[in-house]
Design goal:
heteropentamer; A alpha/beta; B alpha/beta; C mainly alpha; A: alpha/beta; four-stranded parallel sheet; 16 helices; 14 strands; 43% helix; globular; B: alpha/beta; Rossmann fold; four-stranded antiparallel sheet; 9 helices; binds adenosine-5'-triphosphate; binds magnesium ion
């Protein structure tokens, strides 16, 4: 597959590399979970021939596209088994910056003429750009633009709502990521969308290391921030907070304002999530129901998966997603 | 009354026989000197009697009871032990080493008390090393270390003491002190002593003092001679076992007592001795 | 002499308590001494709790108490195993308990994501690892000490490998960070419940080692001599191993793996108090408890984040140890 | 006797080569023996390379060569340090080289994200760690061996702590997984360049240890006796330490931290060939090389992904070692 | 010609003085027996001469050259050493231990060759332990181990041998073999021997054989007596240093030669001896 033919196109990846790829790529390798989600979203899940192991564990995604379960796993997030990759003969692979940063790995890819696109972003803007790059690479530019337009629209909607909230009504939000005491740092995407949603993210503003994307914090620090609302991701985190004497004097706990975020293809709002637009809507709706009456989160959710994944959610599925429970498979199911 | 009886004991390391058909008795208030060439199995035999190794065949009876039927504490109250070599470990103080001899008398989970320390200090005095009491025992000379281990065994206050070459690093005076101490323990406290040694004169010393001492000569994988020092330590038997020429002298010792001793005069030839 | 020993005993008991009480006054949340005093009184007199009361009673005190238990367990276990194996390089994790506990915790994180199950699995696998080491150690009866230690090395490395395997197949977004954080050790999950859970094995283990401390002296003379002084060496060795395992597993299961303490605190004890285990064991206990509480206090106040304990123990304790060595010119070795 | 030794020497040299050649035939990409044969011939005859040629020459062979170098380095260093410290529990990482290298690599991952810098930092910090241990070991001149080992323990734990600190502040999505993966050890980045980079220190170190192997015997008699037999103990000890450090750092910097090999392979060597370092060192070299190449082959073919080496070394090597111990009833100890 | 000269040497451990103002010479073909109570500093003095410890004051001259000016290899070709206690490590084979004595003759980075093995086997024979050649030395008896270390020193082929209580664990025969071997080396090869011992009869043995032997008696932190065995090992001096009563006998040895020896007869009193 060397040499440029007329049917080739130029793609500039997230590192600014110019890559020549065949106009109609047939076999796609997604060695970064986010790229897999996007490729599936843009309608080419059936052409994925190589994935990272984590992708096989997304219950919703593999339910939509069972073929992913048959893809090969030529390595992990940050190292490759080139032989395995060669044996599935991909036209293009999407890789993470960790692999892109390793001269040995990229040298190997170059040596064997495996074309690769680096997918990398640090902000919402960057995330949209990454979606465009993937879209262009796999010939789904239109769909990518549509997604980005939807993303922008959601941002605009929550911005308007946020603007309507008086400063003194804005809540102090604590975002627990996995463990109860793990939260957003100032630099991550989560800090960005919680801000857009009109909240005052206590840790995003309250940590000294401005480059951190995530951090473990001290419980006393949380008491000092005294958040009014807490949102969690992990199963059991809410229960743990509610049941703990340590947290009992936090406002959010006293008023019971602890919410678990939904989980679909990925955890909504996670840095590698394609569902961040939904996370924005859900967050304003949940925290400021009085100001966000215009949002019907169930409707938006159904719309999103229908529109971008061409998937009709059953009522049961919808409930599962919104409750955020049980959307990732255990290890053993995921191996293939 | 027999304190130690060994009955047709035999032992092998990894299939190589060290000794077989060993029989002897050591009565209360008696001394048995185990004597024999290097590598003839003295230490191994003592290990068998201590229960550290187990004889392939035969039985060992301590004070009328099968060795295996004693509890560990009981046996340690019967037998104290001075090893041939002691491997030093952490830098303990000398007195703390010596007081370890009191372990079999402590109730299972307690530490030695004041009385135990007094007994230990007494043992230090008997060994003539009171001045070393608070020194770190890893910084002693070879002979001093040996005396510390000896004192530990004395502190154990057992009716039987097994000593494996206890005087190997001792000076003239400490060697004599050791012999006198042992003799005193036998005479006054009726202790039984099983001692392995390379110096036949130790046996003569006890005999000269009129103590009930016997010599067991190990060679050719068994005890080939057994009897009083006068019977066993003779010029012919020495020649047979060690293949050297010796001379036994009798002289006048202290207070004009008779004293006997043996002196080597030369190797008979440089061929092999009784050992293999 | 007698008097001096009573003073020493009092100091050893008092020091950790002083550290724990001190901890009540330290933290990110600004509370004046008066407020803290009120908080302490309030709780004792049953007044409805406010933030201050909660902070002192639910955060600072449980954490300090747990820290002192963990520090004491690791230090004492290390000292006891060094004596048992006659090898000053042995540490509390020698027989595989840390590696086993790490594996158990990772397994539980992946399977259940439930704090209690993490405790339970860490504890059980810690004990399982030691049991396996012990079985390997018994392969060759006449050289049990070196065989036991080699057994511990093998079992540790197998469990570490299994742990790596779990890390490798764990979900990199959800489980891997939790496992990594757990492995680094932290007292942040301290609560009266975790204190209660770990206190049972820890107290059994520590009490057992306190009772055995004289016998550890005797065991360090080597098998043959220890036996001739009336020890049932197989039994006593097993008791020491069981006690250290209970104490270490009990500590590690709630705190994660805290390196260093189980090796170096006993050596500090040796430098300060000598090698006699009758003194070394209680001194290590007190020293370990104080050390970990102080280190944890530093960790809590330096930043708003949580600095894992292993980091501070080594970074602060390491140079201190070198200083001690230098001052005592090698401390008796 | 003479004849037997020549046979032995040939076998020791031949075995790793056989393993390397075997590796050319193993991998996930389906290549028939004929194709592999062609690939080998093609490259040698300068024909333009196809996929098969590239796979054999650019993936399988460099990896196997690097694996054999790394395995040999770790095993020989472990054996040499065990002799030097008269302590069979010492491993190649004893003096802090692994911990230092781990820290250096993590630092480079966070700072530069560049493979060459990772090699360089790992190597330099590995050496720095040993130098620090050595300085601590010289605090107290008359007990240098135990002081050196304690120094190594302290320095290791400090570097491990610093490593944890880096892991703790590293980006959990980007850098942390790389660090964790590096620490688990892998030969996946093998290339002729990395072989070249590591071969210089590795060969100096291995050659030095081969030359010193008799002196390691003598050094293991203890300072006083070694000296009386004509060794300049300080110099010779330093040479051994430098050689093991070069070899280990050279290996670790390209492969990451591969546990176990540096402790257990020497013991396998002891069981098989006895404790005489003149034989033990070459046997450990050959054994370590074969072992790591075989383990890496397994890792490459069991799944499509990369199973980190530390995992397989312990999981496969551990039971094998226990079997060896059992069979030889403890192997001479 | 003096092989060893010690000039006003003194040494302290951590500030505690062990000896001071030590002076002696050992000429080529001579034997010096270092003799003195436990802990008097014999091993420490030997360590000073070996360069393992450094004297606080004074100087040590080996074969006409200051000790510090020798390279390590050179000095090991001059002096072989038999330690008082050897700590065993890895289970090496006996022959591999003995051949280590050849180290100072090997070019820096090589291993011993065939000739070295022949010399080592010869040394094994001199020590009378040829049959142990292929055994693991960690599984030998105490005396056997001591003979292995002795053989290693013999393999070193040095003109000076320093031995620290080389016969402490040896049996009657091996002790005599050792003495004969040493005497032979002195007579035939003109070696110089510095030996610390607790047995004055070793000195008499050499004297009886007509070898140039002197005795240095260490006590009270210095050498208090120095001279021929007959001069130093007398009943009075023994009493002064060791505080014990002894008897010196003269008898007829082999081939009717005169032979002298000393025997202890009892402690003068149980107070302290010359040591502290
Ligand atoms: N490392 C050390 N530190 C401090 N003191 C020591 C050290 N080694 C020995 N000593 C002390 O120095 C003195 C001399 O010891 P040395 O070993 O030289 O005696 P020695 O004459 O060889 O005795 P022995 O006949 O028992 O072997 C003794 O009092 C001993 O306790
Ligand atoms: N652990 C062991 N394994 C195999 N053989 C051994 C072991 N220990 C000792 N031996 C051998 O068994 C024989 C008896 O050894 P033992 O130590 O009992 O001799 P000994 O009479 O005490 O000698 P010595 O007078 O030298 O102390 C010797 O030949 C010795 O080499
Ligand atoms: Mg013996
Ligand atoms: Mg001495």
């Amino acid at each position: 597959h060397t040499g440029t033919s007329k049917k080739d196109i130029q793609v500039t990846d997230c590192y600014g590399r110019n890559v020549t790829v065949p106009a109609n790529v047939k076999r796609i390798g997604c060695l970064y979970a986010f790229s897999g989600h996007v490729v599936a979203m843009l309608g080419r899940a059936d052409d994925i021939v190589a994935v990272v192991r984590g992708l096989k564990r997304d219950k919703l995604l593999t339910g939509m596209y069972p073929s992913i379960l048959n893809a090969s796993v030529p390595g992990s997030n940050d190292s490759l088994n080139v032989e395995e990759l060669l044996s599935v003969n991909p036209d293009i692979v999407f890789i993470k910056d960790t692999i892109a940063g390793s001269k040995a790995e990229t040298g190997m890819l170059n040596k064997f003429g495996i074309k690769y696109i680096v997918v990398y972003y640090e902000s919402i803007e960057g995330q949209m750009r990454a979606v465009s790059v993937i879209g262009r690479t796999i010939g789904r530019e239109k769909e990518a633009e549509e997604y980005n337009r939807y993303y922008r629209k959601c941002i605009a909607r929550v911005k308007i709502i946020a603007a309507s909230i008086p400063e003194n009504k804005k809540v102090r939000l604590y975002h627990s990521i996995l463990e109860t005491l793990k939260t957003d740092g100032p630099a991550g995407i989560a800090a960005e969308w919680t801000g857009l949603a009109g909240t005052c993210n206590v840790s995003a503003g309250g940590l000294s290391d401005k480059k951190q994307t995530e951090a473990f914090v001290n419980i006393e620090q949380v008491l000092l921030w005294n958040p009014q609302v807490i949102i969690t991701h992990e199963d059991g985190a809410k229960e743990e907070i509610m049941g703990s004497a340590q947290w009992s004097s936090v406002d959010a706990v006293k008023t019971g304002k602890i919410y678990k975020m939904p989980n679909g293809i990925s955890r909504w709002g996670h840095p590698g999530s394609v569902e961040t637009p939904l996370a924005l809507l859900w967050t304003v709706k949940t925290i400021y129901p009085d100001y966000a009456a215009s949002i019907d989160i169930e409707k938006e959710t159904r719309y999103f998966y229908k529109k971008f994944f061409n998937y009709n959610l059953s009522d049961k599925m919808l409930k599962e997603i919104l409750s955020g429970k049980g959307m990732r498979k255990s290890k053993n199911e995921g191996r293939g | 009354m027999n304190m130690i009886s060994v009955r047709s004991a035999s032992f092998s390391y990894d299939g190589v026989n060290v000794f077989h058909d060993i029989n002897f008795d050591l009565e209360q208030g008696g001394i048995l000197c185990l004597f024999g060439p290097n590598g003839c199995g003295k230490t191994t035999l003592l290990d068998n009697i201590l229960g550290h190794l187990e004889p392939e065949e035969g039985s060992i009876i301590i004070d009328g009871k099968e060795l295996g039927r004693y509890s560990h504490r009981e046996i340690a109250r019967k037998i104290a032990y001075v090893p041939q070599v002691h491997e030093r470990t952490f830098p303990y103080r000398v007195i703390d080493i010596v007081v370890m001899g009191r372990t079999p008398y402590l109730s299972p989970y307690s530490s030695p008390g004041r009385e135990d320390y007094m007994i230990a200090e007494n043992a230090l005095e008997m060994a003539g090393i009171t001045q070393l009491k608070d020194r770190l025992y890893t910084r002693l000379s070879g002979g001093e270390t040996q005396l510390v281990i000896l004192a530990r065994a004395l502190a154990q206050n057992a009716p039987i003491i097994i000593m494996d070459e206890p005087a190997s690093h001792l000076d003239f005076r400490h060697e004599l002190l050791l012999l006198e101490t042992v003799a005193g323990l036998v005479e006054k406290n009726n202790l039984s002593i099983l001692v392995s040694t390379h110096s036949p004169n130790h046996a003569f010393y006890f005999e000269n003092r009129g103590l009930p001492v016997r010599v067991a000569m190990m060679a050719e994988r068994r005890i080939i001679f057994m009897g009083t020092p006068g019977d066993v330590i003779t010029e012919e038997k020495m020649k047979r076992v060690f293949n050297i020429n010796t001379k036994v002298f009798t002289g006048n010792g202290a207070e004009n007592s008779k004293m006997k001793f043996i002196v080597p005069v030369g190797a008979a030839n440089r061929g092999d001795s009784g050992e293999e | 002499m007698k008097f001096k020993r009573i003073i020493l005993a009092l100091a050893l008991v008092f020091a950790p308590f002083a550290c724990i009480v001190l901890s009540a006054f330290l933290g990110r949340y600004p509370l004046s001494p008066v407020e803290i005093f009120h908080a302490i009184v309030n709780r004792l007199s049953g007044v409805a709790p406010d933030v201050g009361t909660n902070i002192v009673w639910e955060i600072r005190l449980p954490r300090a108490i747990l820290g002192s238990m963990v520090g004491a367990s690791l230090a004492v276990s290390g000292a006891a195993l060094q004596g048992l194996f006659r090898n000053p390089l042995v540490s509390s994790g020698m027989l595989g308990v840390s590696a086993g506990a790490g594996f158990g915790a990772a397994l539980a994180i992946v399977l259940f994501h439930n704090t209690f199950m993490i405790y339970l699995f860490a504890f059980l696998f810690g004990i399982l690892a030691v049991a396996l080491s012990y079985m390997i150690g018994r392969i060759y009866d006449t050289a049990p000490v070196i065989m036991l230690v080699l057994g511990g090395v093998i079992v540790s490395s197998i469990f570490s490998a299994l742990l790596s395997l779990i890390k490798y197949i764990a979900d990199p977004y959800v489980e891997l960070p939790s496992i990594v954080f757990w492995l680094m050790g932290s007292l942040s999950s301290a609560s009266y419940k975790s204190i209660l859970i770990s206190s049972i094995p820890v107290f059994i283990g520590l009490a057992g080692l306190m009772l055995m401390r004289w016998r550890i002296n005797v065991l360090s003379m080597g098998d043959r001599e220890a036996r001739s002084m009336g020890l049932n060496i197989n039994l006593d060795r097993a008791v020491v191993i069981i006690c250290t395992t209970l104490a270490t597993a009990g500590a590690v299961c709630v705190s994660g793996i805290i390196g260093w303490v189980g090796l170096v605190i006993p050596h500090m004890g040796r430098i300060i108090a000598g090698n006699d285990n009758r003194i070394l064991i209680p001194v290590s206990m007190s020293l370990g408890a104080c050390f970990l509480v102080i280190i944890d206090n530093l960790g809590r106040i330096i930043t708003g984040g949580e600095i894992p304990l292993s980091i501070l123990t080594a970074i602060i304790g390491g140079p201190f140890f070198v200083y001690l060595l230098k001052k005592t010119k090698g401390g008796g070795w």
